[in-house]
């Protein structure tokens, strides 16, 4: 029977994932508070976090639900925010694609920004890693993240409005994404996509129901793809000369 577990890689993943507890916990706590304020029960809040595991999409959906946006808009907006997961999956396929179906299904379930960001960096840094080592590292990263996401979502839902606003827990949201995205901006295409998406998100903030995020996401992806294509063509012309 093929083994997909390597203890040292798993422990290294756990160690690398531990710092994310500092931002995931307040992020989840804030979601729990906001969810109950929006009218969800403790059970519904915990179920939401356990099924979706996508903080940005969850906050987007909650805000739109509070604004009484049409259900279709809520779903499409949450999907637009999570379109990056499709790109994450495509990026990880060369590394984890050979896994059996049920393992790939669990990878898909636990594929979040933290597990993707650290895993891709590790796989690039150690190109000689075996499938077992890659799999173990990926699941090691998510080990300290996932339980804390569940736990603090539950705590937030239970304590609700008793958390004083002065704590400003919403700081965890931008810090989390900055910490993950910063090291990944390694090429001109990455930088261009990030710049255009931020500019569009600000420029189209006036659109109702957070539709500006959908515009920004699409514009960023198109820009990144076009810049990448231009760079490849430019490099090919240089080689030809």
TrEMBL record:
GO terms for cellular component: plasma membrane. GO terms for biological process: L-valine transmembrane transport. Keywords: Cell membrane, Membrane, Transmembrane, Transmembrane helix, Transport. It is a multi-pass membrane protein. InterPro entries: Brnchd-chn_aa_trnsp_permease. The chain crosses the membrane at residues 20-40, 46-65, 72-90, 135-151, 163-181, 188-207. It is found in: Cell membrane. Its main location: membrane. It comes from the Bacteria. The keyword Coiled coil does not apply. The keyword Cytoplasm does not apply. PANTHER family: INNER MEMBRANE PROTEIN YGAZ. Belongs to the AzlC family. This is Predicted branched-chain amino acid permease (Azaleucine resistance). It comes from Shimia haliotis.
């Amino acid at each position: 029977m093929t083994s997909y577990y390597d203890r040292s890689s798993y422990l290294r993943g756990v160690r690398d994932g531990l710092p994310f507890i500092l931002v995931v916990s307040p992020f989840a706590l804030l979601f729990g508070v906001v969810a109950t304020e929006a009218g969800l029960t403790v059970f519904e809040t915990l179920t939401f976090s356990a099924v979706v595991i996508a903080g940005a999409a969850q906050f987007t959906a909650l805000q739109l639900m509070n604004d009484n946006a049409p259900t279709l808009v809520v779903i499409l907006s949450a999907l637009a925010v999570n379109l990056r997961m499709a790109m994450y999956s495509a990026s990880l396929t060369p590394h984890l694609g050979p896994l059996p179906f049920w393992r790939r299904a669990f990878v898909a379930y636990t594929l979040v920004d933290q597990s993707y960001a650290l895993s891709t960096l590790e796989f690039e840094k150690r190109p000689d890693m075996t499938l077992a080592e890659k799999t173990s590292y990926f699941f090691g990263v998510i080990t300290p993240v996932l339980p804390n996401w569940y736990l603090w979502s539950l705590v937030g839902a239970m304590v609700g409005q008793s958390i004083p606003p002065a704590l400003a827990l919403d700081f965890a949201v931008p810090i989390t994404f900055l910490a993950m995205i910063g090291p990944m901006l390694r090429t001109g295409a990455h930088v261009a996509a990030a710049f255009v998406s931020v500019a569009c998100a600000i420029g189209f903030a006036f659109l109702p129901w957070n539709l500006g995020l959908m515009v920004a996401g699409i514009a960023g992806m198109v820009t990144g793809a076009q810049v990448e294509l231009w760079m490849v063509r430019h490099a090919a012309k240089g080689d030809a000369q």
